[in-house]
Amino acid sequence: MSWTRLLHILLLCLVVRGSLVDDIVSAIEEAVTCTACHALLVPLQTLAVLGDAAFSDTFTEVCKATGIEDDDVCAGVIGQQGPIIAHDLRSISALGQSATKLCDSVLGLCQPPAVNKHTMTFPKAAPANPKVWTSTGKTPIQVSHFSDVHIDRSYTPGADANCTKPICCRDYADSPATPTEPAGAIGEHNCDTSTALIESMLKVIPATNAFSIFTGDVVEAAVWLVDQNEATNDLNLFNNEMATLLKTTVYPVI
Asked: Of 20, 31, 71, 97, which sees the most CB atoms within 10 A?
């Protein structure tokens, strides 16, 4: 292939992508019904066919143009999730049941489609006289169950608790010099859990408990910044805190 032809193809892709940005922004603004949502999927599928990079780059521009999130959040979230969405869009029909489910779960613009009928065969029938469980009279035990701790290791007391990002209470590069709502020393309801708060929780779980049950989730909601290394580090830190601060055995459960 000659360089001239390659240049023409690249320029054509740029023109197509630029036109798609306008089409997608217009479609998003008009997507207020289930039918409009299905129509929105058509330019999105066209974009997905151009490739994961083209999809992510263009949708980042769309995100910034519509002001849905701050620019850094748009770039981070779509950079991570864009290829997954592009793959899904290439795999479905814009008018099919999967598209309806997508419009329902992501945008809330469609009613859930009817459940597909499925016949399941069990290995044996339910017992005619099931066992009735009764108390043996033993003294009840006490356990602790905690979940969804979402620890933000970058929580900063005094940082703005009222910000434009999905989670606040951090010193972001574009944070105002003077916070409108300074974050407290232990935590804020608009933010994820501080290290101080999670340590306090673990310390007050009684030593008289028989055991504790932990059912996730650990990583904070700054999904546009979190990568595999940070997620692994967050999990290891919390495992160490449970091992050192809890006075009883803890059972992680999925």
From this structure: 20
